[in-house]
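Friendly challenge for the regulars: who can give me the structure tokens for this chain first? No prize, just bragging rights.
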Amino acid sequence: MSSSVLQWVWLRHCVFATLMVLCVLGVFIMYYKPDISIPTFNIHMVSQKEGDNHSQPDTIILIWMWPFGFKFDLSCRVFGITGCHLTDDKSLYRKAHGVLFHHRDIHGDLGNMPKEPRPWFQKWVWSNAESPANSGRIPGLDHLFNLTCNYRRDADIPVPYGYLVPVTDRDQSFELPAKDKLVCWIVSNWNPNFKRVQFYNKLKNHINIDIYGKAFGQHLNNQDFPKIISSCKFYLSFENSIHTDYITEKLYNPLMMGTVPVVLGPTRQNYENYIPGDSFIHVDDFASPKELAERLLYLDQHPAEYSRYLNWREHFKVKISVLGFDHACKTCHYLENHRGYQAFHDLNKWYWG
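First reply, four minutes later:
Bragging rights claimed.
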């Protein structure tokens, strides 16, 4: 056999062997592909600030309007949330994963809402801390939002006015403040048609109540509130309107300051979703304001029984939510874990019934 023929045969074998190796390698890669991650870049990231060596977090919450004009810190680190970027910079609208709208600041004609189309990945979040009685219906909102952020437990992002957290070893033991008053009430919104005003007018006939606030021409500063509330054995935690889960700082302030709240609002069972049943007194537990007054006077004369309403402090302490701030951070935390499509319909029916 000539040398040229031998070379041709050898070349053919080499080509065949090479093809076989490539086929086997392809099958191996197809079925036994190693887990190699290729870095990707989030197209919705905020551009780096000048001099900042770290990229911005990948969840952006745009605060479209400050609630009642009240501005707050734009860092959620106090909650242990680090993957959030809160901003009021509307130029970031197209990059924001969530846009937070405060109901009481939305114009009735929706004139101050975004004019640009909503990006496909973006969630519009309706936020409101006021009760239905103190919030006007806006028909155009019915099919506008993806999520609700509200004090109600059935909201997508529930944000109660306050909550209890466990006491830790680092917490200092609580010392009960000195009490020189029996019953106190601080009230600014005085309306004779309110149930709380009507109940007070009956209760005051049977027990002495120290009353303060704007309704009586008194302008209290931030230091006055804790001084007054902590100096009373009982505080009238009367809500201005009665709705499910509408339990405001009127409850949590006296709890925090070592005073037993006497509540007028939703049912006892509703309150017990948030605080222990033996930490407060509910007006509905009594047949009349007179019977309630008699119970308070009895507890005043029996310190051991009164102190039972404060035993919960051995295990829990109070945290009070900050208007807007808690809503923004909890919205961001929610969106970190829920990126799928969501929509909310019939807002007016859900909230106003």
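The chain has two domains: 59-159+323-352, 164-320. The first strand starts at residue 59 and ends at 63. Your move, everyone else.
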